[in-house]
Design a protein that fits this description.
It is a single chain. It contains 13 helices and eleven strands. It has 318 residues and is of the alpha/beta class. It has two domains: 162 residues, D-Maltodextrin-Binding Protein, domain 2, CATH 3.40.190.150; 94 residues, D-Maltodextrin-Binding Protein, domain 2, CATH 3.40.190.10. The termini are far apart.
């Protein structure tokens, strides 16, 4: 009788476990049961915004639910990041942003979030960052720029709109022996306007430089990435200049920490064909953004390495 009772208890426990698993599994397996919202951390019309909007139709078809785009701009992506950090980790609210706002901004100013508050769903693409100047400027390389600054006996004025451009230019200036002064502008378009108007010596942008360089109105001095840019492989990179590291701004899709791995995979699986579509690739080419999909594991590794690189640069300019 005791054996029968023990077997019976085991059976009841197993049944309860089966019911528990059965009750939780459909919640993940059924994801999504309602529309998914992608917060774009910048105003409409920018590179991140137009890229995301090129993805939503294919994502919607793959997910079987609508994918909505909501622009939440402010504080260089900080407003959207702070909101996402407080969002429910269920996969229904995610964010597309510039990786710099997550990996660098919390290191240089007080924010309501940090890298550990998020998990990266996948990497959408990579900005093609470079320092550029008006075609009339008497320098065409970093060494020329350093010589120009020493000859003029004044700091180099550069158009600035992100912490990353200030970090890059301060680091480069210290290594090459010249001082820098940031001139505030609004976004990549503001940097372009400042360069064309001759208001600054140089500027940095994640891709806005390419069209005016191609048109012959400006010249690119160097890429700010460590390795050569995929969309401008002949442009000398930080590695080519002899620096131990560079900076690269990516376009990640972020979710709150604690989002189930199964949900991350569903989102990533829907994102991959969208990023690789002809529509998205066309937008990337036009905006000079290398749209290369990277899965959840790879994307999170990239974010961690980017944070490490910024910590090293900060240490080197103290």
């Amino acid at each position: 009788m005791k054996l029968i009772k023990t077997i019976s208890n085991i059976g009841v426990a197993a049944a309860a476990l089966t019911l528990a698993v059965g009750a939780s599994a459909p919640a993940v397996a059924a994801f999504p049961e309602k529309p998914v919202t992608i917060m774009v951390a910048y105003a409409p019309g920018g590179g991140t915004d137009v890229t995301v909007r090129a993805l939503v139709d294919i994502m919607s078809k793959k997910l079987g639910q609508s994918v909505l785009v909501q622009n939440v701009s402010g504080a260089g992506g900080g407003v959207a990041a702070a909101r996402l950090a407080k969002s429910k980790p269920d996969g229904y609210t995610v964010m597309a942003t510039n990786s710099v706002s997550i990996t660098l901004e919390p290191l240089v100013k007080k924010t309501l979030y940090d890298l550990d508050d998020f998990v990266t769903v996948a990497m959408i693409g990579e900005f093609q960052g470079a320092v550029f100047a008006n075609k009339e400027k008497p320098f065409s390389s970093l060494d020329d720029l350093a010589a120009f600054a020493k000859q003029e006996k004044r700091p180099v004025k550069f158009a600035s709109f992100l912490s990353v451009d200030r970090l890059v230019m301060k680091f480069v200036g210290k290594q090459k022996g010249f001082d820098v002064i940031p001139v505030p502008v609004k976004g990549g378009s503001g940097a372009v306007q400042a360069v064309l108007a001759g208001d600054v010596d140089v500027a940095w942008s994640g891709g806005s430089w390419a069209p005016i360089v191609a048109a012959g109105d400006a010249k690119a001095l160097f890429a700010t990435s460590y390795d050569p840019l995929r969309m401008a492989p002949d442009l000398i990179s930080m590695k080519g200049l002899g620096f131990p590291f560079g900076t690269t701004a990516y376009v990640p899709l972020m979710a709150p920490k604690g989002t189930p791995p199964e949900v991350l995979k569903i989102l990533a699986d829907a994102l991959k064909p969208a990023v690789e579509s002809d529509l998205a690739q066309g937008v990337g080419k036009k905006r000079n953004i290398d749209l290369t999909f990277r899965d959840t594991k790879t994307a999170n590794e990239i974010m961690a390495k980017e944070r490490e690189a910024y910590l090293k640069i900060q240490e080197s300019i103290k």
